[in-house]
Design goal:
Blueprint: H1 3-9, H2 50-63, E1 67-71, H3 74-82, E2 90-94, H4 99-109, E3 115-119, H5 122-128, E4 133-139, H6 151-160, E5 164-168, H7 173-176, E6 186-190, E7 204-208, H8 211-224, H9 230-240, H10 243-262, E8 267-271, H11 281-287, E9 294-299, H12 302-311, E10 316-317, E11 327-329, H13 341-346, E12 353-357, H14 363-374
Helix pairs in contact: 2-9, 3-4, 12-14
């Protein structure tokens, strides 16, 4: 079945017997038992809820995984994921990574005895493997520098060293990229972003290929309690129904904007994997079916960056991404504010870098908005 059809209809398993077209919201914290030692399969919503199970099965089907576990946010999912590891374990992570994930690693995981090091390429990953390495955690494309990592190349390294490969697939979603087909073991999503698609709810997802991992993560989720509510599950289900058309439209507009940005004298560099000038363009074409709607770009001064942020009208200056509204973000003050300045600068995250999440507005309106915001700096 085509992925766009799965987006619309969701998983095959149904719990409603009325024929309702929309998935019902099972707004019950607890479920009655038919008898002693008997269960309907649902006992308490922190463990399982029919609305949330429908969402989890849908995400698993879209990613080609065996099971998914839904969480109250992307960071809740990442935090639960790190509970798979013990003091002394070693994780290798992408050196360009969402700032909240780096914050989790530095302030929580390392406090708990998990060692984290960072790598830029598959070759770098291989050099940093140790006997205690238990996983490689990667974003591709990365946030915010839009680097693309060869998933299959890293998977070959992790398989050889008996380590897990975890891929954050938030930017491309299963519509454009399916990491399991390239050797990943766990896929992470901030469902708040493209899966939900409307900037109106938080959620996180962990999808696994191996059912043994699924049981461990389900136990962690039940024990730590960061479950996704039935109503928020419903909102993500509703968002996924339009995922295919939103991803296509966002990409179509993003390519136009990226090409326009290349022509602006006030712009130093455009980071978008859909441009042939991008150093990872060929890898993108090989492992993904699309490039997505995320663009980062550097302007010639911090003054220019601030002028753009304060002048845009259609585009909103706000954190987050993946919604129907276009958002522009200042990574150094928002998504990566907790990184030490030296680390930010080394990664290219300086006062000139902006990140744009392209929404569903007309491309011409977004370009016109950027044009008026950048006016005076293009010369």
């Amino acid at each position: 079945m085509d992925i766009s059809t799965i987006c619309v209809h969701g998983c095959e398993r149904k719990f409603d017997t009325t024929g309702a077209v929309a998935v019902p919201i099972y707004a019950s914290a607890t479920f009655a038992h038919p008898g002693v030692g008997q269960s309907t399969g649902f006992d308490y919503t922190r463990s399982l809820n029919p609305t949330t199970v429908h969402l989890e099965d849908t995400i698993a089907a879209l990613e080609g995984g065996s099971t998914a576990v839904a969480f109250s946010s992307g960071m809740a999912a990442a935090s639960a994921l790190m509970e798979l590891f013990s003091p002394g374990d070693h994780i290798i992570a992408s050196d360009d990574l969402y700032g909240g994930t780096v914050r989790l690693f530095k302030h929580i995981s390392e406090k708990n005895g998990v060692k984290v090091s960072y790598a830029a390429t598959p070759e770098d990953v291989e050099k940093k493997i140790t006997p205690s390495t238990k996983a490689v955690f990667m974003e591709t494309p990365s946030n915010p520098m839009m680097r693309v990592t060869d998933i299959a190349a890293v998977a070959a390294i992790t398989k050889k060293n008996n380590a897990l490969l975890i891929v954050d697939n938030t930017f491309l979603t299963p519509y454009f990229q399916r990491p399991f087909s390239h050797g990943a073991d766990i896929v992470l999503h901030s469902g708040t972003k493209y899966l939900g698609g409307h900037n109106d709810t938080l959620s996180g997802m962990l999808v696994v290929k191996d059912t043994g991992l699924s049981e461990k993560l389900r136990f962690i989720a039940k024990t730590t309690g960061a479950c996704l509510s039935p109503f928020d599950s419903f909102l993500i289900i509703r968002g996924i129904k339009t995922l295919a058309i939103r991803m296509e439209r966002g990409q179509e507009t993003a390519i136009k904007i990226a090409r326009w940005l290349l022509e602006q004298s006030a712009v130093k560099k455009v980071y978008y994997p859909g441009l042939k000038e991008h150093p990872d363009y060929e890898i993108s074409c090989r492992q993904a079916s699309g490039f997505g709607g995320m663009i980062s770009f550097s302007v010639r001064s911090g003054q220019t960056a601030k002028k753009i942020l304060e002048s845009v009208k259609v585009i909103k200056y706000a954190e987050s991404l993946g919604g129907v509204e276009s958002l522009i973000t200042y990574p150094m003050l928002q998504t990566h504010a907790d990184l030490p300045e030296s680390e930010r600068i080394a990664r290219g995250i300086d006062d000139c870098l902006l990140r744009l999440s392209v929404g569903l507005e007309a491309a011409e309106d977004l370009i016109e908005d950027l044009k008026q915001a950048i006016r005076g700096f293009n010369n």
